[in-house]
UniProtKB/TrEMBL annotation:
It holds the Pfam family Acetyltransf_7. The keyword Protease does not apply. It comes from the Bacteria. Keywords: Acyltransferase, Transferase. The keyword Transferase applies. It comes from Antribacter soli. The lineage of its organism: Bacteria, Bacillati, Actinomycetota, Actinomycetes, Micrococcales. InterPro entries: Acyl_CoA_acyltransferase (IPR016181), GNAT_dom (IPR000182), YpeA/RimI_acetyltransf (IPR050680). This is GNAT family N-acetyltransferase.
Length: 369
């Protein structure tokens, strides 16, 4: 959907206040350079060491780290920073990311950290300053005169020093999320969909139709922006197609949907071309590296949604139930997912009714421009 920027907004190049040059960190006596794909194994070790020290409920795989370097819209030469000690071992890093499909709010995402043995030297503060400066440059260069946001995420129980660091840099907590789990030993509901709705396994042939369904499903969710085709298929190193399912309307009211002003242009074009209409999606991931950290095995629902015109038909419940059966058939003990605590579609009540319970929490910090 197109977005008309409010007339009161100054141009993004003005609001971003981008510096002409980036501040190179000096603390800790590290040597700084951009990261490359060859650094992925060392960056994996650095990040997992940080996660272990901070008791984070996850660990990365090498494929996940390599994914970051493989996105066609990212430029590691300008959007990453690696701090090396005298032995050439990475002790700190930063990445800044923006996505090509932002049409309502243009965003920059920050990630980074410092090895536990090198904390307390002021390195983190200077790495964050570099990241913020680069984020402002990227926002200014976007040319998108939209509301803008710089984002960083933190676990609720991360070290308090991390939370203080973000707040002192001007970030404010703007959203809270919960990781939920559901015991698969409990009975899983059986549900039949009505009318011409059919629940089917995920397939490559239906994947772009699922992207369109996702974009429609999430356009009223905070922080969500349309996924472009390239962004939709990227970052799937842990994707579990065997645990992923879609709902298709085999006889959609094409005329009614085309007449509906809420139908987005991409969906309208697909309908005119006679493409299948995916109306619900549940895409899952297999994060086996996280199982020992959690202390149990689980299947993870990455994305779950139903098109706005199809809400109220229990599509999400049917998808979750089908995914639970697939997880359980593979020997998983729990079904896990994350949810925005202020989700506008009533997701929290849905998950509670299915037996999900909170196990972790995290939050988004933002600087609004």
């Amino acid at each position: 959907m197109s977005h008309v920027a409010p007339q009161t907004l100054a141009p993004i190049a003005q609001r971003a206040q981008a510096p002409a040059t980036l501040p190179v960190p000096e603390a800790g006596g590290l040597t700084w350079r951009p990261a490359t794909s060859a650094d992925a194994p060392a960056m994996l070790d650095l990040q997992n060491t940080m996660f272990e020290a901070d008791r984070a409920p996850y660990r990365y795989t090498l494929a996940e780290v390599q994914d970051w370097f493989g996105a066609p819209w990212r430029d590691p030469a300008t959007d990453s920073l690696l701090g090396l000690d005298a032995d050439g071992v990475p002790r700190a890093f930063a990445t800044v990311d923006s996505f090509p499909g932002d049409t309502r709010t243009v965003r920059s995402f920050l990630d980074g950290g410092v090895h536990p043995a090198r904390r307390g030297e002021g390195i983190g503060r200077e790495v964050l300053a570099w990241s913020l400066a680069r984020a402002r440059q990227k926002l200014a260069a976007s040319g998108k005169d939209l509301p803008a946001r710089i984002l960083v995420y933190a676990e609720d129980d991360a070290p308090q020093a991390a939370h203080r660091l973000y707040e002192r840099a001007g970030f404010r907590p703007v959203r809270y999320f919960s990781e939920l789990r559901r015991d698969l030993a409990a009975p899983i509901p059986e549900l039949e969909l009505d009318g011409s709705l059919r629940l089917v396994p995920w397939s490559a042939e239906l994947d772009d139709a699922a992207r369109l369904a996702h974009n429609d499903s999430f356009r009223d969710h905070w922080g969500s922006e349309p996924r472009t085709p390239e962004a939709w298929v990227h970052g799937r190193s842990e994707f579990a197609p065997e645990w992923s399912f879609l709902v298709v309307d085999e006889a959609p009211d094409v005329a009614g949907l085309l007449a509906d002003p809420e139908t987005d242009p991409e969906t309208a074009a697909a309908l005119r071309a006679g493409a299948p209409l995916v109306v619900g999606h549940q895409l899952a991931g297999r994060y086996s590296e996280d199982w020992p950290v959690h202390g149990y095995t689980f299947g993870y629902t990455e994305l779950l949604g139903a098109r706005r015109a199809y809400r109220g038909r229990r599509i999400a419940v049917a998808l979750l139930a089908r995914a639970m059966r697939a997880f359980a058939a593979d020997g998983m003990q729990y079904a896990n997912l994350d949810v925005d605590t202020e989700n506008p579609s009533g997701a929290h009540g849905l998950y509670a009714s299915l037996g999900y319970e909170k196990v972790h929490g995290n939050r988004a910090y933002a600087i609004e421009l």
